[in-house]
Records
---
Amino acid sequence: MSEHAKPVAVIILNWNGEKFLKEYLPSVVSHTNREIADVIVTDNGSTDNSVAILKEEFPEVKLIEFNENYGFAEGYNRAIALIADSYKYTVLLNSDVKVDNDWLTPLYRFMEEHPDAGAAQPKIKSLLEPDKFEYAGACGGFLDCNGFPYCRGRIFDTVETDNGQYDTPAKVTWASGAALMVVNEVYLQAGGLDKQFFAHMEEIDLCWRILLAGKEIWAVPQSHVYHLGGGSLPASNPRKTYLNFRNNLLMLHKNLPNRTRRKTLVRRRLLDTIAWAKFILSGDSENAAAIFKAHRDFAKMRGAYKSHPKVDLLHGNTNILLDYYLRARHTYRSLKN
């Protein structure tokens, strides 16, 4: 990084998102501390008026233009590779995130004060219900013994109201890709986001690899943002079901050691079969078919991942299914009681 460069790049990935740019980019421009950060929009070959709008209405925003749509993971990988020599940190910020106050400075200071941190996220609240946490990330994520994700502030469909109960910074297992701050060197050494995932859980997979490399993941609630979320695919969409089930299997296969990987995947097959049966019994054949397709495609794709770690980061973790459905523990705080 050059002597006079700013330490942080806030990168928003855009593809045909002129509506989101007009609605949410002004808050990012207004409330990002320009002494420490540049706001950069990376355009993934948009065919709408995104680039013209950026050039005409947001001249202070730096622009990276790609001539094709590389998708979420590869788009960020290419953008960070281009700017990594100029910035120490990058914030991967979704285009449907609104910010206020000086949202970035607490994250930046925390990372500077914690050199073992490889990634961090702010508190993520719902844009539509600002008193509640946002589903995908809330106040930092964890994985249970079967690889199911949950958060401080959200377990399955139970989303908590933010009453300051998670306002202490905490080490977590994964940080949300909606507002993910990474050390660029760590990001690149970990291999970046896995483009084979296409969408969903790619940030959890990345954070797992960052942890395996000996770095820490943190939630820093002194910073907060508001995320619209669910804009691309609603929770009940079979495409989302497919990606979540397939990518969770890929993530387990990649990041578990030989001695426990097979047993965990067999257990997941049984649990996923129960989920499949539930969809069948409820008459939802499309989501049932999505689970079947996810397992079929996982079987085709897993051969591409030939190296596995020696450490099992899921060992000793809670079983969130038992906690939630049998023990009626519906909040993160209740898991600790």
---
Amino acid sequence: MLSIDNVYSARNALKNVVRETDVIYAPKLCPGVDLYLKTENLQITGSFKVRGAYYKMTRLSDAEKERGVIACSAGNHAQGVALAAQKNGIKAVICLPDGAPISKVEATKSYGAEVCLVEGVYDDAYQKALQLRDEKGYTFIHPFDDEDVIAGQGTIALELIEQLPKIDAVIIPIGGGGLISGMAYTLKTINPRIKVYGVQAVGAPSMQQSVEHGVIEELSGVSTIADGIAVKKPGEHTYELCQKYVDKIVTVSDDEISAAILALMEQHKLVTEGAGAVAVAAAMFGKLDLKGKKTVCLLSGGNIDVTILSRVIKRGLLMSGRSCQLMIELMDKPGQLKNVSRIIADLGGNVTSVHHERANEGSDVNGCFLRILLETRNYEHIAQIKQALTDYGFKLL
């Protein structure tokens, strides 16, 4: 059974294995909020998952260790189980969805685990892992719906309370719910006054919907850049713990997640994956009332696939007003482009791309369109440039 003693036992088992990750003050991310970041993205394996996986391994019998373990994961739990198995001399087989980032697949292999790629998403990998468990006799290490795993994740809360004794609120990502279950249980047991908020992606709100409707629900599909929390169905243990200990669950969009990833990189030189940035996205975009609260955002992981990082940054620039596309209708005569460029330059905008095309049917025969991509400071800067162009007589589409 999950108990506070079990969480302390997990901490003792992990003391020579995991890092005690730093807490960083981050006031600029959310002006008006006393905001801090718990940097589990800097944990060994790049994620908090190693905590629960390793503690679970220490609880296995000798016979279970001899047979080996199997797990399924979108990536981070895979690495945690693989490392824990390697340190304990246990054979590990990991089922991953075939869409998992290559970097996570290769990292899992580097810890000595056998990788089995499964067509589909996390839940498909889960079914395959259960099949192999039954066929081969492996012990299944659940990524979230296991009380020992949940206790392992709860050790983050013990660290946090010692690092920041007077916390008012903690914002935590939710996928299957193991992380927030362990942390919420531990935080509320030690100090019931602390508010615990969960965050899911708009495209994978399984726990939010389940808690709202009072019954565990399975989504027909999930779609989000936050692959670490793209879970169709929460666990039974985690659902019950979230119902009891989590104060509120909110969702954030992929664009908001991208903006949070960008802000963390620029302002704090911290690389987070999509799932790792959702707590910051919730704070940045006003999803919760945090005024006057000493608030901690948990950065749960940093294993972002570098092949999608440029796309995430581009979306983050657009979402935060750092990049803008303008479509301007012009008369096709000399000097028009010069005037547009002068107005933008005088206001400090930086044009990065220009596309000029003739007008279509039904438009003025002398008309043309100018599509411009430019770098800007923020939304106010964009509005200023648009107003200046309009005042000069240009028509923005």
---
Amino acid sequence: MRQKGATAIPRLHKADLHLLAVFMTVAESGGFAAAQVTLNVSQSTISRQIGDLERRLGMRLCQRGRVGFRLTDKGQAVYEACQHLSTALESFRTTVGALRGELIGDLSIGVIDNWATESCYPLAEVLRAFRAKARFVHIQFHTMAPDEIEHAVLDNRVNLGIGVFHRHRPGLLYEALYDDPVELYCGSGHPLFDRDPGELDREDLDAADLVHRAYLSERQVAPLTAELRSTTSAWQIEGIAFLILSGWHLGYLPVSYAERWVMAGRMRMVLPGTFCLNTKIELVIRRGAPLTLVTQTFADILREKTRSLNRERVNGDVR
């Protein structure tokens, strides 16, 4: 029985869905001002729309003013409910499209910054096969650091992620796709660049300056170099490459990613094989989240292509 004085939760109409979408954008942007660019409306309009939504729902969703912006506890709960609603609406859309023999809807992918350019396995092959089956799906492609990918999948900002994840988080499912060897490199102009590998010893390395990978624990992942001095850090592979190319720093890079500079004589491995790490490229999805047909189709193609790559590697067919 409804309590005396309680008001019924309003039925959702098209206008309500728009207000909820505005609220999600504001929450994800961290405030009204930051949401202006995405929504392409004035801050006063956003404020009015959030006020309309609060009146419709009968609760305060966020605090705003001189103290800054933050969601209330109820606002956080409504935001999480909005995420579930958004997923359900997208699932409905793709299901109806499937009944008509079509793949329609949205696909949001978070990918580490160097994966698409690896010579051994370009992401373009996966996208080409997916697009052949899903001509009308809107693809959102995000290049992120590994921890950003995990947060985006957990927050439902991307449907799936692809990357190197050294510490698995609760709430996420990880699936190994293939191994990607990583080696230690120096750049042209570095004191170790022209030294014969047989001449190098530990003292040479102790004098070097290692690029710290800010997205992982060097001590856990690469204990052999964990004690090296480090005056730089980078959140993405590209940043590590820039610092190595400066000629001042050592750093770890995927072998396939560094190949272009090795061939050009601008990088070389430091003691090849000594510091080799076999990192895993993994697919990550949110635990317990039902996949839409669009997301499932992309994941299946990704698995098929990486299985083919692994077979080629076993047979020695990868160039």
---
Amino acid sequence: MGKYFGTDGFRGEANVKLTVEHAFKVGRYLGWYFCSPHRRARIVIGKDTRRSSYMFEYALAAGLTASGADAFLLHVTTTPSVSYVVRTEDFDCGIMISASHNPYYDNGLKIISGSGKKIEAEVEEKIEAYIDGEIEEIPLATGERIGRTVDHQAGRNRYIGHLISLATRSYKNTKVGLDCSNGSSSAIAKSVFDALGAKTYVIHNEPDGTNINRDCGSTHIEELQKFVLDNGLDVGFAYDGDADRCIAVDENGRIIDGDLILYICGKYFKENGQLFHNTVVTTVMSNIGLYKAFDREGIRYERTAVGDKYVYENMCENGHCLGGEQSGHIIFSKYATTGDGILTSIMVMEVMMDKKMSLAALTSEVEIYPQLLKNVRVADKAAALGNPAVQDAIAAAEAALGDDGRILVRKSGTEPVIRVMAEAQTDELCAQHVNAIIEVMKEQGLVME
């Protein structure tokens, strides 16, 4: 990770960590980087519903056009739609203005390459060098070389048409609930499900600039659980602020997280000869219950570091078609290069409609183990992980759990935090082993109170 760009772009509190000047400079550099003497760069911009997204949109557009690039504005849209438009309409790159599931006062810039993937780290490093004045000033475009800003809402509409085209069956008479998190999916999700014939019930689709992710969406799934039960719905889907993740709720109000979605789709793809290399890509945070279910079904799996970026890298390198995270970032590489919450909803609906089974029935074979995760603030993450007494405590917990659970202790990529996670057959066992490891860290003087 760089000084400004992390695993998911340049993110921070608007006009505190990520300022309008930063956005202008990002636009200036990207506009210059992709322009040539004989060709004007074409860069597309999307944004979520945060109040600051409008400010950053105009700052980026000003920077891009000042460097001679044309800025195409999708307006309020989802991260996966920007990826789709970039790779299908010959844009040089795309920029999504969003802080995903973070509170409204945060924001972020996600830069997407011309192939629809997250931009290469080398380009991010060059942008950082420009922001910090470590490279010479970029010349301003003049005269007819100055870029222009273009309304490109048609690109978002093409993406909606793409999603609708992926469904092979009508959703007629199916009652579907959608929690749009007062975010990007508010502009897209209902129209997709309406077009497919569903009886669509929507909550949290009235963004006001400050209510994105507030007690709603995939990070506050209890709202959708209640809504599904109160209205007797067949299924519910909740998205995050930029709609690149999806968590489902079955007809009984049970949470169907990313692990269970991977199971449903992985098993269905295998049954239909569509699971390339008979493998699903997961992260180290996936539940042991998922792996036991995959073992039973004869499905292979791979584990990556946490982050959909690493999942997709593995999928590309090895030719896998399905991967994702417990948090709901699911990637279907046949159709997308990023996690896509609305696409994930459609894929789950396809399984339900084809097999004529409820979501509860489709997931009934999987026993998800209780999981406990605690974050511990430390002065030195490397020292905490490498401490011999901590390593002994981890080994003791692993030996005690055997094949009936697991321990995962890892450092955060963005905070001075060690994450201690346990999975076991009971909540009590999880708490016992997590607390034992944290206690040793305290005894060793590693914890910041």
